[in-house]
Amino acid sequence: MERIVKIGKTLRTNWKKSILGAVVVYYGASKLKEKYQINILMRAACKEAAKYGDALIPMDRNPTVITVILNPVANKRKAKKDYEKYCEPLLLLAGLQVDVVQTTSEGNAKEVVETLRGTEAIIVAGGDGTLSETVTGLLRRNDEANRFPLGVLPLGRTNSVGNVLFPGGDGVEKVKQLIQACMAIIENNTTWKDVMKIEPIDTGEETPNRPVYALTSIEWGAFRDTLAKKDKYWIYGPLRGYASYVFNGYKDSLTWDCSGTIKYTPPCPGCENCITRKPEIKRKWTFFIPNAQAAQSETKSMINPECSVVNELCFKSTEFRIQPQINNGISALSVGLGKNKYNYTEFVSEGWRRLKGESDVPEIVKARTIEFRPLDSKPDVVIAIDQEEFEVKPVKVTLLPKMVKFFCKSDINC
């Protein structure tokens, strides 16, 4: 008893050191527990992947070849380490022949995919930017390459598509997410996703660039600009998003005026005016090679009289957003506009609610195609396409339903 009293007096006398020591012990214990749980998960996942690797394959067939497009600088240069630690062992144990191509610069993924040959699936190891570049390179080809599966290993800072296909989090939950993404590739579970085709409109001033393809969103305005600055406030840790709204909500450098016009056609379930269906490839795996004997495209005989009706809308807002959605089984582009004006308090409050997922941009119209023309295109104003920044210019956005095949979990509707 005397010893316990003595220890209590010591802790009371040195209470600052005691608190610091308790925090260090708690942090160390939580890290050890997390490491132990990750080891258990990886051991179980490796045993499951090895079952596929031990399975017999036909004598006339080589191991399945997949190409991994790895962005080594994604997520503050942690992507390569996480891929080699959690993903690569599972793919190799499953008997897949893995070719890893590391990107060297911005836009390099597009160039790699456009010229890629001799692979049976493409796996993107990175964030939204790497995935967007890969999809753009894939759809710029003219050899039916988009009919083959695309895998997503969510290793970047922003993983919008990866988080939809494989819900995850931090720590142990992040490792679970990567394991699920790898097992979807190994088990060959796939689903089709809609894609937005963004084409610059020829204004006669300069030669228009080639089209860009996006999967998640096109965003323009003050809220997007604020979130783009959040990494400057890294010192606030998980609260850096909130800090970004506090320190930027009054600045004129944000895009407070999003104004312009859009011409749009209504959503269509598919008719001979707007959709062309290409024949399915019956083989489970094949190579990316031009198919000169592809069958002719088939069109639906149904005619929708409203499909080609063009509507026009002028807008002025603090925010402009286009996202693909599926409503009642029909794919459509959802156009959202924020309020026309916010004061500082309203802007910060709304931004904080959005960080909590409690609010979103009000939807104005649904469309199949959109011609977007900003009222004033300034060189320093940018628009985000799948989190990648581009100069604001007149563009035409077309929804391409079920254009890219993704690996996904088998137990959810992804």
Automatic annotation (TrEMBL):
Coiled-coil intervals, chain numbering: none
InterPro entries recorded: AGK_C, ATP-NAD_kinase_N, Diacylglycerol_kinase_cat_dom, Lipid_Phosphate_FormReg, NAD/diacylglycerol_kinase_sf
Keyword set, alphabetical order: ATP-binding, Kinase, Lipid metabolism, Membrane, Mitochondrion, Mitochondrion inner membrane, Nucleotide-binding, Transferase
Ranges where the DAGKc domain occurs: 61-202
GO BP term, example: ceramide biosynthetic process
Membrane topology classification: Peripheral membrane protein
Pathway noted in the entry: Lipid metabolism; glycerolipid metabolism
Entry's family note: Belongs to the AGK family.
The protein's name: Acylglycerol kinase, mitochondrial
